[in-house]
Amino acid sequence: MDQEPLHRRIAGDIERRIASGEWRPGFRIPTEAELTAEYGCARMTVSRAMSDLSARGLVVRRRRAGTVVAHPPVHSSALVSIPGIQSEVEGRGLAYSHRLLGRIVRPARADEGLGERVIELETLHLADDLPFVFERRLISLSAAPEAEAADFTAQPPGGWLLAHMPWTEAEHRISAVGADHETAAGLGLADGAPCLRLERRTWRDGQGVTWASQIFPGAAYDLVARFSPTKG
Amino acid sequence: MDQEPLHRRIAGDIERRIASGEWRPGFRIPTEAELTAEYGCARMTVSRAMSDLSARGLVVRRRRAGTVVAHPPVHSSALVSIPGIQSEVEGRGLAYSHRLLGRIVRPARADEGLGERVIELETLHLADDLPFVFERRLISLSAAPEAEAADFTAQPPGGWLLAHMPWTEAEHRISAVGADHETAAGLGLADGAPCLRLERRTWRDGQGVTWASQIFPGAAYDLVARFSPTKG
DNA sequence: GAGTGGTCTAGACCACAAT
DNA sequence: TTGTGGTCTAGACCACTCC
Question: Where would you find the membrane-spanning parts of this chain (chains A, B) (predicted)?
Fold first, then answer.
């Protein structure tokens, strides 16, 4: 009967009226006192429902002014799923494999933000033995000294890092580039073919751990982002 | 002194210990009862702090088992900011303008999911009078009949829609493409130059409203996504 | 069975902003 | 001034699930 908590029922009722267009952006929602009376519950229960809606950006609450339905964002944000390559490949029902193309250890440049020494790796990721992603990666040996002894032919760098150095902060940059000669050769494309580049930087406790540039053939790959203000 | 609510101070304290690595993934956090004693407050206050952390994915809570620090996601998601072009341009301190290059009204194709008739628009967006984005857009005249009479030379289609048909659901697709001849001409690029394509579909209450394909010069544009499990 | 989180109550005081 | 949300209390009962 009563599985759904009351605060979620209240939030859901309001959400439905917003989604259906019955309550348009700018519409002033009943006050907590009114909703408390309507549902016959304590004010804190209504308050929790409204706080949840507010946290999800569906409504805007201001003291004295009351609660109004939010306007859809001009600068909208959407959750984009940043794929782990291996799980991405396997999720498509293909066999994942990888080849380590290059590995050197060298001093880090100051602008790399990765400490004193880095290991520099080039990896080709394959799906059913066909090239899928060309990856260049730097790993900070200050942050992850164990990386110097790791066998990156057995485990790709991304997987190794996930297991050994979980990050606490990440930044991704998505851009379009033409494949340079080396990348084009690795992926079997024409020089200059449009590719999606995903750059990823991660930190652990403020210290730079790794930088990676992953290049996907443009024709074969999409990032999809969904945003639904009414569905979290 | 006491501006910060107690529940946020509690959440912040815990967050800091997770971010610093003091409490690693899997670590079992003190129970609500223990935290209640530690902070000398009511249990609901602690509960709210922990619920917030849980909603943000920093911790996982299970009855009887207690609350543990969450493992970082394998398949991570990040919030990517999807720009409104005008605000993007103005945010860079440049002057925004636009030119309507084409406009026709025609029957919709079934696979477009936009009702019976659509208006098809081609718009060039400029920053300081230099081409910045080439946009192709379809607007459903079933969902937005007023669009047929709108003056899209005065207001760009995106801005008009935001004002007249706020969406409730959106999907974005990010990919890399080579500029076709028309796009290249519009943006002043060589044919086939790598570009970032942002496709956007929006719905209002389940009904398709618009589809847009916005093409950014690859060299001039990045989408940035940040993810920080410790900072929301 | 007992420890844990999930929800809810019926109050209270305070901060803020519109009037 | 006063209406509104923001926070907090000190309890309570319940639902899980591990032991």
Answer: none
